[in-house]
Amino acid sequence: MSKTLKKKKHWSTKVQECTVSWGGSGELVTVVEVRGGAELGEFPYLGHIVSEALVCHGGRFPSSGDVLLEVNGTPVSGLTNRDTLAVIRHFREPIRMKTVKPGVCARLRIFE
């Protein structure tokens, strides 16, 4: 007899979208640190976040370590850190970020 296999959900069902603004406290990159990038062989991910200066208008508040997939519909996976920061700086606030927790899929693991 064969055992029934439990079908696992695809990692894309775990993607979270959040609309954030940061008020008059400069640029988003001063409030949210972006780490990783293609030059390191990693997806871009969020580092230190100054949560007091960030306002989440919708969705789940991003947390440190979340893998950054899109910024305002622009995919950032495969971009260098410098290019990811340029995409973020290009848009005015508020911006929409799509993120996913690391380790949801073996391909999205972050190693420090």
From TrEMBL:
It is found in: Cell membrane. One of its GO terms (biological process) is signal transduction. One of its GO terms (cellular component) is cell-cell junction. Keywords: Cell membrane, Kinase, Membrane, Transferase. CDD domains: PDZ0_MAGI-1_3-like. Gene3D superfamilies: 2.30.42.10. One of its GO terms (molecular function) is kinase activity. PROSITE patterns: PDZ (PS50106). InterPro entries: PDZ, PDZ_sf. It is a peripheral membrane protein. Residues 65-103 form the PDZ domain. It comes from the Eukaryota. This is Membrane-associated guanylate kinase, WW and PDZ domain-containing protein 3. It comes from Collichthys lucidus.
